[in-house]
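Help needed: design a sequence for this.
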């Protein structure tokens, strides 16, 4: 790698031109994230959008609850001296200027929405972690050459509209006005209408697009959502590859009829056919040649859903995830083919629709190498790992080099009320994030030929 950076020396130089404070800058390994503060922030956000029953969180994308959470965190960042902007799709971007005018930003963030009946940590940890990291910079009077931008992406969870990472797709330029009208939730509300209902103008969404020249790097802290870190007693995971997902909506149409009057051999039971598809999906993913792939039927709507009527119509979703892009699409094609064969045999009609498709992404090796060095310097055990879940980072990586840091998930649980990560585990992640942001600030400045601490290079 080009020239080892020295975060503390960089920060010392940068501090000369800083307005952030008089205090001496503090080297990465000497600052400590505050677990109590982190726990308090997590608890406060968890008060927004709680489930009426079950103890989980339903802070659904593009709702008032999601906006309330963004506003709460914006308030914290504003108090730290950040300027706040909300873009056309609802992403919140808070900025603290760097000491070199016009330098591209180092972004850090995640999301605040949840799946229905989800937990308190998925996405939230990355936002709370970014706020705590911001506090470490501010409280220690450490300036950066690059602006720091804390980003809270809107609508990361795809549970409502089928499409995940909507906010990050908008900044990456992967979301058109047509998509906003076509994406509908279970009650038929389009994303465009959902945006209007919370005070946004969907026609302006293209303005949310980021200019690659304005971004130097993006970092995301996230819970692992699996149990590898916990089982191996490793506090930090550094992500090399993020899984992609292909999502399908399937509708099987049979014939609704009386459950008592209709003999078994003349039925066209859409649910019995759907059951075969669910099992076929499971065995396809378990086949050894597909090791690493994951297929899930997570939603099944049965019509008329009555105890005394043969199901005439079933709609369901299929979610195909893989770190191998070709295999991901081949599996999606294969499950559609099998669905047709299974349904044909029963005289059931089939309609399928592709509702979302995101490619797996290999994150830049150089950021991961810098992350490894940071962990080694801090004396923190880490492992390099893939992410089975999708993330905003894989989307923005198309325009800004992105890195991801994982902290352990208790029992590997996620997307359920039992999701849990200790505040001290998050604090360790924040310390890695802080040191990494410092390190990248120094390294990128030397690569970009920035004059150390210069404030006149306009
Ligand atoms: Zn997430």
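Sure. Designed sequence:
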């Amino acid at each position: 790698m080009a020239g080892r950076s020295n975060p503390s020396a960089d920060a010392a130089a940068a501090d000369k031109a800083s307005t952030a404070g008089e205090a001496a800058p503090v080297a990465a390994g000497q600052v400590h994230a505050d677990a109590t503060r982190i726990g308090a922030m997590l608890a406060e956000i968890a008060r927004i959008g709680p489930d009426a029953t079950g103890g989980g969180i339903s802070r659904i994308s593009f709702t008032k609850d999601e906006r309330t959470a963004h506003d709460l965190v914006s308030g914290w960042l504003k108090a730290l001296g950040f300027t706040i902007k909300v873009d056309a799709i609802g992403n919140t971007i808070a900025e603290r200027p760097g000491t070199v005018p016009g330098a591209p930003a180092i972004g850090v963030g995640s999301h605040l929405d949840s799946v229905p009946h989800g937990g308190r940590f998925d996405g939230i940890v990355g936002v709370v972690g970014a706020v705590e990291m911001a506090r470490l910079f501010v409280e220690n009077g450490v300036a950066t050459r690059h602006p720091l931008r804390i980003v809270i992406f809107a609508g990361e969870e795809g549970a409502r509209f089928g499409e995940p990472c909507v906010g990050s797709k908008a900044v990456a330029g992967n979301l058109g006005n047509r998509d906003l009208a076509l994406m509908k939730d279970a009650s038929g509300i389009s994303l465009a209408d959902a945006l209007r209902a919370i005070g946004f103008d969907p026609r302006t969404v293209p303005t949310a697009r980021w200019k690659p020249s304005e971004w130097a790097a993006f970092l995301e802290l996230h819970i692992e959502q699996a149990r590898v870190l916990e089982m191996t007693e490793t506090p930090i995971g550094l992500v090399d590859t993020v899984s992609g997902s292909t999502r399908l909506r399937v509708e099987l149409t049979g014939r609704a009829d009386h459950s008592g009057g209709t003999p078994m051999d003349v039925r066209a039971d859409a649910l019995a056919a759907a059951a075969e598809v669910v099992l076929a999906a499971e065995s396809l993913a378990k086949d050894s040649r597909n090791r690493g792939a994951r297929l899930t039927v997570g939603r099944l709507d049965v019509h008329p859903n009555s105890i005394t009527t043969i199901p005439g119509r079933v709609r369901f979703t299929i979610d195909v995830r893989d770190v191998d892009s070709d295999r991901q699409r081949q599996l999606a094609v294969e499950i559609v083919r099998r669905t047709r064969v299974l349904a044909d045999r029963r005289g059931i009609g089939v309609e399928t629709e592709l509702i979302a498709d995101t490619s797996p992404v290999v994150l830049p090796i150089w950021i991961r190498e810098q992350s490894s060095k940071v962990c080694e310097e801090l004396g923190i055990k880490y492992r390099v790992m893939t992410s089975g879940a999708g993330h905003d980072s894989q989307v923005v990586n198309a325009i800004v080099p992105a890195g991801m840091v994982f902290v352990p998930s208790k029992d590997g649980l996620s997307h359920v009320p039992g999701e849990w990560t200790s505040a001290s585990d998050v604090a360790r992640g924040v310390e890695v994030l802080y040191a990494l942001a410092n390190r990248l600030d120094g390294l990128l400045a030397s690569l970009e030929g920035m004059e150390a601490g210069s404030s006149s290079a306009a």
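Residues 111 and 153 are 5 Å apart (CA to CA).
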